[in-house]
Amino acid sequence: MLNGLWFGFFLVATVSALSRWLLGDPTVFAAMVESLFAMAKLSVEVMVILFGTLTLWLGFLRIAERAGLVDWLARLLGPLFARLMPEVPRGHPALGLITLNFAANALGLDNAATPIGLKAMKALQTLNPSTTTASNAQILFLVLNASSLTLLPVSIFMYRAQQGAADPTLVFLPILLATSASTLAGLLSVAFMQRLKLWDPVVLGYLIPGALLLGGGMAVLAGLSATALAALSSLMGNLTLFGLILLFLLVGALRKVPVYEAFIEGAQEGFEVAKNLLPYLVAMLCAVGVLRASGALDLGLDGIRTLIGWTGWDARFVDALPTALVKPFSGSAARAMLIETMQSHGVDSFPALLAATMQGSTETTFYVLAVYFGSVGLQRARHAVGCALLADLSGVLASIGVCYWFFG
Hints:
Oligomer: single chain
Number of domains: 1
Largest sheet: none
C-alpha cells in the first residue's frame, strides 16, 4: 500500500507538471526540484525537534513503567481492549501506553502524545508476527490517532487570536462536533474491516459513559465566556502536562524507583527510536512536497469549484478547502493555508471559520503514517490508509455541515 501510494504521489505530480509546462509554465519542474531539497531539509528540522521531544518523554515514560502506572492503566482498560484488540493480551503494557496517548491527544498535548504513541506502537510490534505488515491492533491504534482526537484545540484559538479575532474560541463547539464525527468514522471503518463487535455490552459499557461525560463537559464549556474558555483550555493543557510529569516522579519515588537512572534509560531509547525515523520522513515529505509544487492540489480545488458552480450550491466552503486538502499531507502547510484564508477573507469570515474547524478536526494522516509505522519498520499498511482517509473526509464533511449550522 505504501509503495503504491508513494509512487502515486510522484506519478500524479508528473502528470500535473507536464500539463502546466505544456500550458506555458516553464518554471514548474524547477519548483518541484526545489521542493525536493526543501522537504529533505524540513525532514531534518522535524527530526531535531523529535530527538528532543522523544528523549524527554520516553525518559519520563520509563519512570511510569517501572512505577507500575502503565500496567495499572492496562488492567483498567483490559476488558475494553480485549474486544477491540483481541490479539493483545490483557494487562499488556501497550494498553496503558495507548490510553496515555489518547488522553494526551484529547488534551492537545502533541509533544507528549507522539512519543507515547511511538512507544505504544513499539509495544504492539512485539506481538506482531510480521516485521513488515501492520497488525489489526496497530491499524486501529493508528487510525484513531489519525482521526484527530483533540478535544481542546488550543493552537486554533491561538492562531485566531493572533489574527485579531474578537472571539478566538468561537470555533470550539464546531471543532468538538466535527472531530467527534471523524473519530467515530475511523472507529466504525476499522470495526467493519476487522469485524469488531462494537455492540458488545462491555464495549458499550465503556463508550456510553465516555460519550455522556464528553457531552456533559461540552455543555458546561459552552456556557463559559470566550475569555474564560480560552483561559481554561490553556490552564488544563499546561496543568495536565506538568501534572503527568509530577505524577510519574512522585509515584516512582514512593515505589523506590531510581528516577534519574530510569529517566536516562528511557531517554536513550528515545534517541534510538528518533534516529530510525529520518528515512521514512524524508520519503513521505519529499513526495508530498513534489505533489504540492506540481500544482496538483490547486488543480483539484479548481475542479471542485467548477463542479459546485454547475450545481448552483453555495460555494463559500470552497475557499476553505485548501486547508482540508493539504492537512493529510502537511501540518505546517495546513497552518499556512489557514492563516492565508484568515488574512484574505477576514478572521471571522465564513471561509476562515470553516478552515479553522477543518484544521482542528482533521489530522496529518501521511505524517502520522510515516512516523508511527516507520518507527517499527512497517511497510504494508493494509486498510490503515483507507480508514484514516475516510476519517479525514468525515471530519471535513462534518466541518462544512456544522459551520453552515453555526455560522451560515
